[in-house]
Specification:
The structure is a homodimer of 323-residue chains. Chain A is an all-alpha fold and 323 residues long. In chain A, 73% of the residues lie in helices and 1% in strands. Chains A, B: GO terms for molecular function: metal ion binding; prenyltransferase activity.
Chain lengths: 323, 323
């Protein structure tokens, strides 16, 4: 297995996972959401993290899949909590079946994620499961903060960054740390890779916020301006609110948290303020800062430079994506 | 720590568990449901299972608590799925907070349950977590079958017994197996204890079905006849439907699955058929049969007889309870 083969190997291994058979109402939704596809970035990060240190990836693939099953568990429960009708263009599990099926199928997915770690060498298992559990709890904390923020009148930029760190970034960091630990890397290298992944995750999520406003409608895949329409407290909105003049505050207040008469007008008005305040370049600067921090951590990892190229390349891809 | 101290030790240790702090909306519900009390039978079974083989229970208490946290996780999510307003006479988490908080707090409880196992000696950990994970998935399967049965026209007695085995009994079996394994018992002894616990769990659940119909209203704590009123497919109803004469079938069909005009009349009519068919003594015979099977497994465990007395006594208590 070389890095070029990793995606195909992950896809093939995921397709062979057996989550259980009966009752079908419990297991069909798991096969369904896992079959919806996706970039499978998390197991890819684990494999690339391990490949920095070893060519023997025989024991890495199965725990790498655990991260993807866990990620999809969070999507399943988050979609239910957010009442999202679609996931990757298909009906969500709670829509296709019902909310109870979504709750219980998700619960089993979390159990199955843990099970996929159990072939890890016993000497490594307690540490890896402690780190996975901490990460899993943090992801839940992030989702709870995200839901809390919807109804909180004041959210600071620091609170927002901490929320996306918990909800999105720590799992990417864990995936890389996992790969490193499975490959026998030092604590120091595992920690640098964890921070590389976390920084990339933060940059990735901020890029998501940016694309929502400034993305190309043709390639973005979601409605451009969706976050603005739904009053989502993104980095862009919170930054604009923090920097707006009284006149700009008044315009924002007229649109945010108010009934939407004309969605396009709302998007245009809010974006105009972002433009006036140069929120785009500020966001890009923060993304770039996280990205540079990430690269510094990668640089410090004691592994051959050519082995770092695929990770460097993937990080760049995640930053430059248009969707 | 001797068996007489176990309940107080469990209560004290549970009170000291730290599930997490922020956000409070995520962790307060966990403290709340764990604080509602209960008999704490599951950690007690683990401690008693270990005490058969050793006096050194220092490493047993923490994983024993995992079973109680897991059990309360299932109660939290089940209450949401069943839309139950009350748990132990107090508002359920989804009522006191909201459904999303119940989903996410439950998710974190499952993570915390796994974490409580991680101090288990690494040589035992993979096997114990594999058995715990299998049990956890089975409990979810049992809950899904239970929900499926609500809308299925035909449920066999065998299907019903399998459902209560999964939903209730396997966890009690696991708790005992866990104690045995932590105390270094042989696979054979661990397996006998698992079967002892599973049989006790089946008997316990059937006793629950029986109490619903024939319990003393003063001590039962729930409305007597509640299962009949809600058309719940219990062992008693399924047995009656399987044995009823055409005339009795007609009476049952008039009451089961129909709008309830007079709840007391419904309970009286269905119970009259149970009486005619001697369903009570049939249920008691099955309970007794599971109980005898349980005792035979306990007898075969290679441990001193006097050490088995607390388990024997607890099993009797669970059978003879009036609530």
């Amino acid at each position: 297995m070389t890095p070029a083969d990793f995606p195909a190997n992950i896809t093939a291994a995921l397709a062979q996972l057996d989550y259980g058979q009966a009752p079908d109402t419990l297991y069909a939704p798991i096969r369904y959401i896992m079959g919806l596809g996706g970039k499978r970035i998390r197991p890819l990060l684990t494999l690339l993290g391990a490949h920095l240190f070893t060519d023997d990836l025989s024991g890495v693939l199965k725990p790498a899949l655990a991260t993807e099953v866990f990620h999809n568990f969070t999507l399943l429960h988050d979609d239910l909590m957010d009442q999202a009708p679609l996931r990757r263009g298909q009906a969500t599990v709670h829509e296709k079946w019902n909310p109870n099926v979504a709750i219980l199928s998700g619960d089993v997915m979390l159990v199955r994620a843990y099970e996929l770690f159990l072939d890890v060498p016993p000497a490594l298992l307690p540490r890896i499961l402690a780190r996975f559990s901490q990460t899993a709890a943090e992801v839940c904390e992030g989702q709870q903060w995200d839901m809390n923020f919807e109804t909180e009148p004041q959210v600071s930029i620091a609170q927002y960054l901490d929320m996306i760190r918990l909800k999105t970034a720590v799992l990417l960091g864990f995936c890389l740390e996992l790969g490193a630990r499975l490959a026998g890397a030092s604590d120091e290298d595992a920690e640098h890779l964890r921070q590389f992944g976390t920084d990339i995750g933060l940059a990735f999520q901020l890029r998501d916020d940016l694309l929502d406003v400034y993305g190309d409608a043709a390639t973005f895949g979601k409605r451009v301006g969706g976050d603005i329409i739904s009053d989502k407290k993104t980095f862009l909105l919170l930054s604009a609110q923090a920097q707006a003049s009284p006149a700009q505050q008044a315009i924002l207040a007229r649109h945010i948290g108010q009934p939407v008469a004309d969605a396009d007008a709302k998007v245009q008005a809010v974006r105009a303020i972002y433009d006036e305040l140069e929120i785009r370049s500020q966001t890009e600067a923060l993304i770039n800062s996280y990205f540079q921090d990430a690269l510094q951590h990668l640089e410090r990892v004691a592994a051959p430079n050519e082995r770092k190229q695929p990770l460097h390349h993937l990080a760049l891809q995640l930053m430059d994506r248009e969707s």
